[in-house]
Amino acid sequence: MGRWEPGARGRLAQAAMTLYAEQGFERTTAAQIAARAQLTERTFFRHFADKREVLFYGTESARDLLTSAVTSAPAGTAPMDAVSAALEALAAQFQENPERVRVRDAIVSANAELRERELVKLAGLAAAMADALRERGTPEPAASLAAETGIAVFKVAFARWISDPDRPDLPEILRTWTDELRGVLAQHPGA
């Protein structure tokens, strides 16, 4: 087994996803993941803090993408529009490997601890976008409302996208459903 082989992180992630899908998250060990990737368990722990981290290691890059997109939105962009554009950029990344996203979602959905961690991750992404909006000058509660609403729309759109075997365009679903939400709010002013 190679210690410093290139692509170790990717091989470990792929091995973990395969094992989680085959035998379940709970029954899979770090040692099994490393063995499947033809690496050592020590190498696994150089790349991941624990076996859950394989499913969540992209959180920092997602947060960076979202905050960068919100921060770099043109001056005068409405807070909800900045959040929507940021989430569409994230959704476009999901479409690059929809099968991996589908497998990951099935693994997370089957485990209460992982579902809870997913909700914590989403709350962190909303908080990061709200911070970015405040840095742009959006006052409270508008910054938090826009960010939290964006995440809510993203969750609903993602669930639809993941359950549709024809895999429609996730950014398009987000755009459509954000517009739908605007329509609902316009029909019920003060709601």
UniProtKB/TrEMBL annotation:
<keyword id="KW-0804">Transcription</keyword>
<feature type="domain" description="HTH tetR-type">
    <location>
        <begin position="6"/>
        <end position="66"/>
    </location>
</feature>
<dbReference type="Pfam" id="PF00440">
    <property type="entry name" value="TetR_N"/>
</dbReference>
<dbReference type="InterPro" id="IPR041347">
    <property type="entry name" value="MftR_C"/>
</dbReference>
<feature type="DNA-binding region" description="H-T-H motif">
    <location>
        <begin position="29"/>
        <end position="48"/>
    </location>
</feature>
<dbReference type="InterPro" id="IPR001647">
    <property type="entry name" value="HTH_TetR"/>
</dbReference>
<dbReference type="InterPro" id="IPR050109">
    <property type="entry name" value="HTH-type_TetR-like_transc_reg"/>
</dbReference>
<dbReference type="InterPro" id="IPR023772">
    <property type="entry name" value="DNA-bd_HTH_TetR-type_CS"/>
</dbReference>
<keyword id="KW-0805">Transcription regulation</keyword>
<dbReference type="Pfam" id="PF17754">
    <property type="entry name" value="TetR_C_14"/>
</dbReference>
<keyword id="KW-0238">DNA-binding</keyword>
<dbReference type="InterPro" id="IPR009057">
    <property type="entry name" value="Homeodomain-like_sf"/>
</dbReference>
<protein>
    <submittedName>
        <fullName>TetR/AcrR family transcriptional regulator</fullName>
    </submittedName>
</protein>
